Amino acid sequence: QVHLVESGGGSVQSGGSLRLSCKASGYSVYCMGWFRQASGKEREGVAVIDRDGGSAYAESVKGRFTISQDNAKNTGYLQMNSLKPEDSGMYYCAAGPSYGSRCYLGPTLYKYWGQGTQVTVSS
Fold first, then answer.
1. Cα–Cα dist 75/103, whole Å
2. What are the φ/ψ torsions at residue 107 (nearest 5 degrees)?
3. What angle do CA 119, 64, 10 make, to 5 degrees?
4. Among 110, 104, 93, which residue's Cα sits nearest to residue 24?
5. Which stretches does DSSP call E strand in 38-111?
6. Most buried pick, 40, 91, 106, 116, via CB within 10 A?
7. Distance of alpha carbon 117 from its chain centroid, rounded?
8. In Å, how far from its chain's centre is CA 2?
9. Which helix (H) or strand (E) is 113 found in, with range?
10. If we measure between CA atoms, which residue out of 54, 71, 65, 86 comes closest to residue 8?
11. Where does residue 8 rank: exposed (0-12), middle (13-18), buried (19+ CB within 10 A)?
12. Rounded-to-integer distance, Cα 29 and Cα 10, Å
């Protein structure tokens, strides 16, 4: 079993920054990712990272968001810069296995989920 706890959400103005954290406990998994869900929309992948540091991003956040992890602290991070109103939503941390030694952005591939942290970006 893997337990995930997110923190760091909040309200910022457009152009601002936030850093989300995800503390993991339990056994190790290969992939960790950040996902978001806006009101009335499906959950979507934002960024994922594997245990070796390889990462992938949604096109909408490339160049603005950075995913990272501190394996010694069992903690993952999502640095979000140049935030836009369309980045608003509930952000979830998730963990799961790799597929062909790769991590993917599809939410259905992840078994363990945190409770979420709200991000609100105002224009």
1. 17
2. -60, -30
3. 15
4. 93
5. 44-50, 55-57, 65-70, 75-80, 89-96
6. 91
7. 10
8. 16
9. strand 112-113
10. 65
11. middle
12. 28
Structure tokens at 50: 């594997």
State residue 27's pLDDT score: 76
Q: Which of these, 96, 32, 86, lies nearest to 64 by C-alpha position?
A: 86
Which of the four pLDDT bands, split at 50, 70 and 90, describes residue 36? very high
Residue 48, phi then psi, degrees to nearest 5: -135, 155
Cβ atoms of residues 121 and 87 within 8 Å: yes
Whole-angstrom distance, CA of residue 50 vs CA of residue 102: 7
How many CB atoms are located within 10 Å of the residue 48 CB?
Answer: 28
Q: Cβ distance 7 to 21 under 8 Å?
A: yes
Residue labelled with tokens 């103005």: 13
State pLDDT tens for residues 72-98. 899 999 999 999 999 999 999 999 988
